[in-house]
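User: Fold this; tokens only.

Assistant: Input:
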Amino acid sequence: MTENQTLPRPETTGAFLVAALYHFARFERFEDFRSPLQAFCDENGIKGTLLIAREGINGTVAGSDAAIADMLAFLRAQPEFKNLEHKESRAAKMPFLRMKVKLKKEIVTMGVEDIDPNRIVGTYVDPKDWNALISDPETILIDTRNDYETAIGIFKGAVDPQTKTFREFPDWVKNHTGLHNKPKIAMYCTGGIRCEKATAFMKEQGFDEVYHLKGGILKYLEEVPAEESLWEGACFVFDERVSIEHGLKQGNHKLCHACRNPITAEEITSPKYEEGVSCSHCYDTRTEEDRQRYRQRQLQIALAKQRGEKHIGS
């Protein structure tokens, strides 16, 4: 390799294509669609999770380029999902263990009835225009993700609700009267789906100028150069890559398989960290009996690896 050559970017050379997708639509036949969708994915070697409900579809899957292209065509052939959009990234290893198609009451659980993004929703803002909006002193910027996600990355100046689940978000909004102090509300999440519901909820609560980042953090990290970025840290993703950074390259975080929190290289050096057993986030909330159980699971994972197999709990 010459001095001027550079290594290929991991996100353009990974063997597996990862597709994050969601679409709100009236989908009355969702229960009947589960089996055909599961069979299609299984037959094409696709793994991941797809949630389907009366309000639409949501999920992230991975597979070969051809398999993912065929699956997206299969979904868009359904009248309800003809306008489905998705976001792509790559992974060097298959980031999921299995394929699951789940029936749900909501494709993203807020727990508030009659919130319909097809009826009322905030204004989409393209990634290229996002910096200008959130730099406006008349804008309040809100992260709609949960605390374990915001812990490793957040937009500069964003308000972090510190929610444990998305169900807590409506009460947080109702209890924060200061949100009315500025005319503009800007909201963001990983891929855009939570903001669809969050902005719909905000509009229902009487907020007028409500905006959300189109395509979410994933699209922003894909399109906005790092030198122009207002994003700080890494973005948590719900697969074995754990986090991604600008250019959608894989981050350096690992996942604690005891509590499912992302952990940094520095946290791995903590005396409270034991692979598959504990980390500084959960050590004080688990009993020694819990840790012994996790150690047994970790032993089974190691034995499966020696046999060249993948343990279901890894």
